[in-house]
Amino acid sequence: MHELSVTQALVDMAVSEAAKAGATSIDKINIVVGELTGIVGESVQFYFELISAGTLAEGAQLSFRYVPAEFHCDKCGYNYNRNGFSFRCPKCGNAGVITKRGNELYIENIEVSFDGDKGSKKHT
Ligand SMILES: [Zn+2]
Description:
Elements: H1 2-20, E1 25-34, H2 41-51, E2 61-67, E3 70-72, E4 79-81, E5 97-98, E6 105-113, E7 121-123
Parallel strand pairs: 1-2
Antiparallel strand pairs: 1-6, 3-4, 3-5, 6-7
Helix pairs in contact: 1-2
């Protein structure tokens, strides 16, 4: 059920941005999702089709960019991504701590169309 409220928020944001820009439809929504959010793109896509019906976002394509979780080693200062199931620093073997990276969840930008305009424009 987590994805439902997340998707609702994403659609609201995209629609209000598109409306502000005077767009007549949204072609594409580029979304950044951190690994630690646990958000599954397929679920967002499923809810999106229900929620976006009848809005400017109806029929828009969703594109997800995944950001891997990042760890920081206190011992040697190295930042690294998880290596399989190992959370240890690849440089010195110290057990690293998780950083804020991987908690991202936001719309990077949307691509919209204007009336009588065949091409789509990027709106950030
Ligand atoms: Zn280290």
